[in-house]
Structures
1.
Amino acid sequence: MARQSDERETRDERPERRSPAAVPDPATLAPAWREVVATARRSTRDGLVVGTSGNVSARVGDTVLVTPSGVPYDALGPRDLLAVDLDGRVRVGHLRPSSELPLHLAIYRATDARAVVHTHAVHATAVSTLVTELPAIHYMAGALGGPVRVAPYALYGSDELARHVLAALRARTGCLLRNHGTVVYADTLRRAYEYTAQLEWMCQVWLAASAVPGRAPALLSAAQLDAATDRLRGYGQPPGPAGAPPA
Ligand SMILES: [Zn+2]
């Protein structure tokens, strides 16, 4: 019962988008698809994803390009372009979308995301089993909006997991998924990927510092992290790439 009303709530968040859109022209989607595939390959190369365990998507208008389920990223080419609408109906392509499509779509429907990166990065996944929020070990948490929450566990690919993630993403652009991995969204794939790598790095730092016997890592206060969050958002800064990681 609760689940039904939750689902309806989610649907009600999609104003005026319900009219059937024209089938998108694959040629206009090709550049975004190349970027999706390149990002997915990079996630494997950089060790953030093993095999096909993560997934990457990008939104172009009301179309979402998403990596397919179970296809090695090295095998993906232009003909594998896979596009769905915001309700998850395949509009272009012949492959089955990633099993985490409900998670990606929930984020696109609820936020201004233009790109979503989901990984099973090792340190982030380890941290997701230990805490309900990544301790404030480094100010780069501000790039994700503040202390990084851990969404409660739910079966992969489920609407329940998507709901948990949306709750964990309130006022944040990234979170951990308990016993599962990471999800980060941004206005570009480059930025979503960069902040995924930063999140994994912060988790590695916290694990390393926590592992020193007899010592506990110093953590940032809420005020210190708030100040870093404001600066990373570009508040009070000269025009430039908001949220760009500082040198
Ligand atoms: Zn996953």
Note: Strands lie at 55-60, 63-66, 83-85, 90-92, 115-119, 150-151, 174-177, 181-186.
2.
Amino acid sequence: MDLEDAMENWSSVKKFTDEEVEREKLEKIFELTTKAPTAFNLQPYRFIVLDSEEAMEKATSSVIPVNGWIRYADKIVVLVGDEEIDVNADQVLEHKLEEGRIDEEKAENLRKMYFDYKNRDSEFMTGWLTRNTVIPATFFMLACKTHGIGSCPVRGFDQDKLSEKLDLKETERPILIFPIGYPKEEDRNWRRPGGEIFEIR
Ligand SMILES: Cc1cc2nc3c(=O)[nH]c(=O)nc-3n(C[C@H](O)[C@H](O)[C@H](O)COP(=O)(O)O)c2cc1C
């Protein structure tokens, strides 16, 4: 399915067949997901794929009761954002240096600037993490859809409980979870017409 069809036919999937999502397909989906933009290209996120029954239980026991259906997914993918927003700064800067796009002095200034962002207040950090994970989340869901895999973004879970169960770093926060699998049933929901969501000034 191409991207336009995937967007046109989007629906969150909450009912799945028994078919397993193949490892190669998952690898392709995550390869596409890495193409998502993030601020300064810092990519302060990662995905954890819960595949075994034991691993999935960590998510199913952390959701609010209405989300109990997630246990029937083939896998549960957890998107984690890192408050240590410069966690990948060395790699990002190394690439820029190698490509000759910056020199050492500029790299040092950038490193300091990234570091300073970490000392802002928690409201700023929440905004930063949200912005820098929802775009990768969208790339992920659309990559799934174009490869025939259904998903649904789920936020109804206890963040602290899930962090503990997944043994996340102190600076990491689970942002969204995505039950995934081959779709069994899909309900298409109403959307506002395109003309209603923008104005030209
Ligand atoms: C940020 C966010 C959080 C969501 N959380 C949940 C959730 O906790 N449980 C759930 O069943 N669906 C959840 N959804 C899915 C929405 O209910 C669904 O996308 C919406 O009803 C539109 O339906 P559609 O995606 O099938 O078009 C969430 C969606 C978003 C974007």
Note: The chain has seven helices and six strands.
